[in-house]
Amino acid sequence: MLAPLDLGDDPTVVELGAGTGRVTDALVARLGGRGRHVAVELNPELARRLAARHPGVTVVCADAGRLPGVLREHGIDRVDAVSSLLPWIAWHAPIADLAAAALTPTGTFTQVTLLPTTWMPPARRQEHAVRARFAEVSLSRPVWANLPPARVLVARRPRPGTT
After folding, report:
1. Looking at residue 113, what is its pLDDT?
2. Which residues form the Methyltransferase domain (predicted)?
3. Cis check: omega of the bond before 94, within 30 degrees of 0
4. pLDDT at 123
5. How far is CA 150 from its chain centroid?
6. Amino acid 1: pLDDT
7. Which of 76, 136, 137, 152 is the most exposed place for a label (fewest CB within 10 A)?
């Protein structure tokens, strides 16, 4: 999920749906103290635990649909990467639009999708939304070690939108 991210010298990265922090742990290691890392988590207990474990990460207890406001509240105009573990239910908000609007022109959006459900209408709508907002979209090979198996949707070159 993090391999496609080009994290230069001083990147700003947003993580949506940080949950228990598995991706947060990997991002902290990959950033090595560089840049800025904002983790957005809806569950207050998970957000509290994550903030305690990673004091260098800005952990925000909020709905991912509030991304523009969260960024404004933290003085962030644009980000270099948005990494999302959000489930379909969280896509009540236009996540692809919000991610595209938050990214720099060279930014990258990654979204984990569960392989066994890719044929279902919510998964197809999710992928369609990403393809509509980004000029370059690819899918990783299946990650069989994940339970359930998953793949990563990688989107680059955000298109202008209305969000």
Report:
1. 85
2. 13-104
3. no
4. 79
5. 15
6. 66
7. 136
Distance of CA 44 to the CA centre of its chain: 18
Write out residues in the chain with pLDDT < 50, as ranges: 163
- For residue 40, what pLDDT is reported? 97
Q: What is the pLDDT of residue 90?
A: 61
CA 11 to chain CA centroid, Å, is: 14
Tell me how crowded residue 88 is: count the other CB atoms within 10 A of its CB.
Answer: 15
The verdict on pTM exceeding 0.85 is yes
Write out the two tokens for 49: 């635990």
pLDDT for residue 114: 82
**How far apart are the C-alpha atoms of 100 and 136, rounded to whole Å?**
12
